[in-house]
Design brief:
globular
Length: 290
């Protein structure tokens, strides 16, 4: 049985298969840029602020070594490359397949699928990102539709059926009970033998994220009893952390730390706390209807 439900391992990107995907992503970025089409960064921004850029760099953690050149690495760090490779290599996306990408409007992942002939519907809450995604799809002549709508609302209203449902590092930004409500209804949009893939922050110290172990994963992503894991039935944790929370990283981002304390994601008594080591990573899971 192949281990695909697991925490991130950047050694996966050393394979020839991964290197081929990375080259395709670089070519896609070049082609889109040449046509005036700006794909969003891993932070989900087409026009990031200077503060966002600083936070993005800090978030990369200690001892980070970029795979791409510095300009592309800012937008697409190793972590995003791993997510895209891991999802695409473990799901059999084919030309003509229909994919619902939750929270992925204007993203490298969703455009990568569309460029391969996959029919993509991407939903997002940011109208500006949605509008830009639809503009790019038109310029690049892609079968791609972005919709500005809450995921829970979309799932309750749509009559469309999808071969695959994906979400790349979005669910940790959704309130916990809402995540569960989305999962409980998500199978209704799947075609027979359809598949689901999620990537997410794993062991992020923010209290809002709350995905810290296998029990958290099963309680949240398998709360729908109609769903089960593909391949390995127990989440594999390699206990390697690649990122550091901006809250605890150095140099300290004081204004952002205070912002997170106000949101009650971190306790006020840890305002001056920093960490010298990375403290979290990403994870990926793959689901099917039983």
């Amino acid at each position: 049985m192949k281990i695909i439900n697991k925490s991130m391992d950047l050694k996966d990107l050393e394979t020839n298969e991964a290197k081929a995907v990375i080259e395709e992503l670089k070519e896609l970025e070049y082609e889109f840029s040449k046509n005036g089409c700006i794909i969003s960064s891993w932070y989900g921004e087409c026009n990031p602020t200077s503060e966002s850029k600083k936070l993005s760099i800090l978030n990369r953690g200690y001892n980070y070594k970029p795979i791409l050149d510095l300009e592309l690495d800012f937008k697409y760090p190793n972590f995003l490359l791993w997510e895209i490779f891991w999802v695409t290599s473990n799901l059999n996306f084919q030309k003509g397949n229909k994919v619902l990408d939750i929270g992925g409007s204007c993203s490298l992942f969703s455009f990568y699928l569309a460029k391969k002939g996959v029919k993509v519907v991407a939903i997002d809450l940011n109208q500006e990102i949605v509008d830009e995604a639809n503009r790019i799809a038109k310029v690049m002549n892609l079968d791609y539709k972005a919709i500005c709508m809450d995921a829970e609302e979309y799932l309750s209203k749509t009559k469309e059926k999808f071969d695959y449902i994906t979400s790349i590092c979005v669910f940790e930004h959704i309130e916990l009970e809402k995540r569960k409500r989305i999962i409980r209804n998500i199978h209704k949009c799947l075609k027979k033998d359809g598949r689901i893939a999620f990537t997410f922050d794993y062991k992020n110290p923010s209290k809002f994220v709350n995905i810290n172990n296998e029990n958290d994963i099963k309680n949240q992503f398998l709360c729908n009893k109609k769903l089960c894991f593909l391949e390995n039935q127990n989440f594999y944790d390699n206990n390697v952390s690649y990122l550091v929370s901006v809250f605890y990283g150095r140099p300290v981002a004081w204004r952002y730390k205070i912002h997170l304390i106000k949101l009650k994601e971190f306790p006020v008594w840890e305002l001056f706390k920093t960490k010298k080591e990375n403290d979290y990573t990403f994870g990926a899971i793959f689901l099917k209807v039983k």
